Amino acid sequence: MEKLVDTGDEVMLRDAARGFLDDAAPLTAFRANRDAGRPYDPALWSEMASMGWAGVLIPEDAGGADMGHRAAGILAEEMGKTLAASPFISSAVIAATALRAAGSDRLAAIAGGEALYALAVDEGAKHAPASSALAAKPDGNAFRLSGRKTFVADGSSANRVLVLARTSGGAGDAQGLTLFDIDAERAGLARTASGSIDARDFATLDFDDVAVTGDDIVGDVDNGLAALGPGLRAGQAALAAELGGLSAGISAITLGYLKERKQFGRTIGSFQALQHRAAHLFSEIEVTASAIANAGRVLDHDPDAAQVAVSLAKARATQTARLAVMEGVQMHGGIGMTDEYDAGFFMKRARVGAEWLGDYGHHAAIVAASRGL
Fold first, then answer.
1. Which end of the chain is more exposed for a tag (fewer CB within 10 A), N or C?
2. Is the pLDDT reported for residue 4 higher than 80?
3. What is the pTM of this model?
4. Would you put residue 133 in left (φ > 0), alpha (ψ -120 to 50) or beta?
């Protein structure tokens, strides 16, 4: 794959994001949030919103910056380098994209950082939107939701929820699903934190006869996957970018360690075997970066045809992040998994990011099918 190079505007955005995050969200900030038991710093999110990051995919007439998916990927990538936690992907990417396509009047609140969204889609161990069985039973001109959603990112801290529910058909049917946008404090909705290993906010949501109306519907009844699809693709691309940044972040830490740690009277980075492994990792990160950049640009220019590019990016980013964290921990030696060192934080986030919004197998199957395999 030919390496895709950032444009001048993209370089400026990346440099600005890196400068801000180095000061406001270094790895020490992630550790502090973890120790305080909070998934992210609300003050940091407010700063991000004031810089236009929350509105990166929202039109200017709704208070957004409308910079596009490639720009959103650059921001996610830079966040990944220092594990900067925020509701960016859930709210500014997934919800903003899905609601923009539906012409929602809540875009301004997302751009301002006030509307924080969680995406309640999956119900099993793997990402499978069409398998949703959470029931939306008719109740006059409205519906009542009953069932459970698992692995809901930002599920405990969000003040709004996009939930995919079945209005007709059965689990596995692509049709018969409807997307709803509801207040997270709606009567009958219970949220339970899941205790994710990456110290982020994942939750289980239980719906017990939750009343929803026609005003809560996003898109068309029974065609929820069409309404949700743009948001899912955008989220998958941004998550791939975050994993790409994570790979670069742990790689930089590892290279620094190789240059400092001495064994047998010399730095371990002088050993050829470790140099070969570091070079291989660098090559994988570079190829994956091009796949991530391509996904963002296809989303900007032909979003309806972007799934294969997005799935390629997510699959590659998942595998590259796995390689990067494994090499990072192994080259640090046993101390790499101790809490004193940061390498373990990257491994835990990589594991969670690999599963959220579709694992390697899910996305590799999409790419294979596109090639007739």
1. C
2. no
3. 0.96
4. alpha
